[in-house]
Each structure stands twice: as structure tokens, then as C-alpha cells.
Amino acid sequence: MPTDTPAATELGAGVLKRPTRLADGRELIYYDDPATTLGPDRAVDARDLDPRPATATMRQDILTGDWVSVAAARQNRAFLPPAELDPLAPQSATNPSEIPSLYDVAVFENKSPSFGPALAAAVGDAPEAADPPRGIADLEHLGLGRTRTSVGRCEVVCFSPERTGSFGTQTVTRARTVIEAWADRTAALSALPGIEQVFPFENRGEAIGVTLHHPHGQIYAYPYVTPRTTRLLDSIDRTAPDLFQRILEFEQAGPRVLLRGEHWTAFVPFAARWPLEIHLLPHRHVPDFAALSAEERDELAPLYLRLLRGVDALYDSPTPYIAAWHQAPVNVGRNTVRLNLQLTSPRRAADKLKFLAGSEAAMGAWIGDVPPEAAADRLRAAIEGVSL
């Protein structure tokens, strides 16, 4: 198999970044652990791939103003393939996967994206965006039958070449490499034209809708500020610019704190919606991963692993969850919206899940099944038994 030697850039903590491209022009970036055992050469992707799909189209819901991306190409994405055909494992003679070489951490453009596959100005073989948004004011305008091309970017973040696991099963060193990748991709995606918000997240477990068992997450780069963040910005306007600092101090003085370090505090929020819900806040204001200091990144790696392993220690089987890293929008709220993790799970007992039925799904009116203080007590006990 032919090889190439992608140019290496050293990031924080000794992580090496090696960008290259897949056979259809999609970007692939290797992030090598410090003291990695991998050499500098990477196999060239020699697959004969179909052309990249046309960029999806967004439709506006005039009742809410929300934009809904209609991405039909996602119907063709892999669905729980056998281990020998894992599309996120390194390529082999019998598995023409998405990543040509053995890797530590790898990030690549999604083959079946909800947004993209790229902006018109991007390099590579991506199709042109036929009718892109014309700025925030254009997207905020309400009208019947309004559509725009779903410009943006969707990336897959592979935490490990192993075929099973999650972020929580990684080593502290590997977790630190992923954090460096999140910071690097946040900065790069935020700089793309037309991007308004960048969202790293991990879906874990079939109960959440995961279609691959391989340990991985995703990053979405949206052409708008998401509805959840729009509501947050309104809450900040109605209360105070330092709302997140007030929340942090309120929770630190209360009974729901799970972990507290020099730079981060994890807690069950006062008005938790889900049976399992954990928020994690940095102690100083930072808008996104790219703004974190080296010390904050260093502490986050083991602290986050302890949280995730504590969640898994609650029951005899792994817990499904969504780990959502909320970041400030690219162009608004930079001085008020603080980077924060919101981890949620529908698991309300060993063999029971919370389903969103009439009140929650239809009206957005939530009913909590577990008192947040009780959830915090159970989580603290589970975390105390965790080792790294």
C-alpha cells in the first residue's frame, strides 16, 4: 500500500497533528499521542469512492423559526456493522474503512453529513452550495416555504482504533489527546466562512441511537446559532452577563456537587430534566475549547474520565448517554456564554429508560423522575469507587 508523510504540527501536551485527505477529497487529520509508537508515514487512501453527496437543504419551521436540515444521504450510513467491517477501524485487506492507517486519534469529514459536506469556499471535491444562508438576519426572517442550503461541516472524532469502548474507556493520555483535537477543530471550524456555532459531542449506546460501537464522537459546525443556545442568550439578557459564574457559585455551595478541582466543578443541576444529568463548568470564563489553558486541559482529562466511569459504575452494564459540549457561538455571546458540558442519560433504573412522551415531547414541559439531590448522592458514591 502506498504511503505518504503528512506534515506534522505540534499542538499542546506534545500532541502531533498530521492532516491529509481521503480518496474523495474529504479532510482526514491524525492526532498522535505524545510519545506515540506510530511512525510519521500514513497509508494513502486508494479506494474508488462515489462522488460526494449533494449538500443537504434546510427548511424553516415558521411556527418556531427553527431550521430543519433534510439530509437524505444519511439514510445510507452504516448501521451496526459486524466488527470485521467497522468503518472507523484502520483499513485492512478485507475492510475498506474510512481511515487508511493505524492511528491514536483521527478526525475526518462525515461521509453522510447533516450539514455540508463543505462550504462553497472549501478546498477538495465538495459540491458548491447552491443557496447558502445570507447571514444571521436572513435566517431569523420568518416566511412560509423558506429554504437554504445546509452549509456547514460534520466531522467524526475517533477516540481509539479499538473497535469497542467510549471516551470513558480511554487512558488519561488519550483523553488529553482528544481534548487537544477538540480545541484544534473548534478553532479551525469557527474560522470557516458561514459558521455560527461549533458543537462537539458523544452519543453513547444503542438506546441513544448510536449506529457504530466504535469509540467515537462528532463535531457539528452549524450555519446558525442553535435553538438551545438562542434561549440561553435570552436568559442571559434577562438576568445578568455573569450568569454562568452565578450558577457555578450557587451549585458549589449546594448539595449536588460531584467533583471539584482547581479549574473545574461537576454537579447535578438544580432543575435536572433527566434521571441522570451532569453539568461540568470551568471556574473561569472561557467561550470554547480553543480558549482553555494548558492547565485547564490537563485537569479536564482525568476529571472527565472519573465522571464517565462513575456513570458507568451505577449499574452492571454501560449507561447510554449524550455528552454535549456547549460552546459560545462564533460571533455573539463570546463574553457571556461559557463552555460547559451537559451530560444526560434516559436511564432511570437498571432496566428502565425515560421516554419523552406527551408533555415533554409535544409541549416541552418536563417532569423529573429522580430528585436531583438523590441522583447526586448516587453518582458521588459511584465516582468515589472509580480508579483511573
Automatic annotation (TrEMBL):
Record-linked SUPFAM superfamilies: HIT-like (SSF54197)
Biological processes, Gene Ontology terms: galactose catabolic process via UDP-galactose, Leloir pathway
Any matching Pfam family: GalP_UDP_transf
Presence of the UniProt keyword DNA-binding in the record: no
Keyword Zinc: yes
N-terminal signal peptide: none
Co-factor requirement: Zn(2+)
Active site: 216 (tele-ump-histidine intermediate)
One annotated Gene Ontology cellular component of this protein: cytoplasm
Catalytic reaction equation(s): alpha-D-galactose 1-phosphate + UDP-alpha-D-glucose = alpha-D-glucose 1-phosphate + UDP-alpha-D-galactose
EC number: 2.7.7.12
A Gene Ontology molecular function term of the record: zinc ion binding
Entries under InterPro entries matching the protein: GalP_UDPtransf1, GalP_UDPtransf1_His-AS, GalP_Utransf_C, GalP_Utransf_N, HIT-like_sf
Pathways per UniProt: Carbohydrate metabolism; galactose metabolism
Domain of life, source organism: Bacteria
Record keywords, A-Z: Carbohydrate metabolism, Galactose metabolism, Metal-binding, Nucleotidyltransferase, Transferase, Zinc
Domain Galactose-1-phosphate uridyl transferase N-terminal: 84-225
EC class (word): transferase
Domain Galactose-1-phosphate uridyl transferase C-terminal, first and last residues per copy: 254-381
NCBIfam families: galT_1 (TIGR00209)
Family of the protein in this entry: Belongs to the galactose-1-phosphate uridylyltransferase type 1 family.
Record PANTHER family: GALACTOSE-1-PHOSPHATE URIDYLYLTRANSFERASE
Entry protein name: Galactose-1-phosphate uridylyltransferase
Source organism of this protein record: Microbacterium saccharophilum
Lineage, uppermost ranks: Bacteria, Bacillati, Actinomycetota, Actinomycetes, Micrococcales
Name of the encoding gene: galT
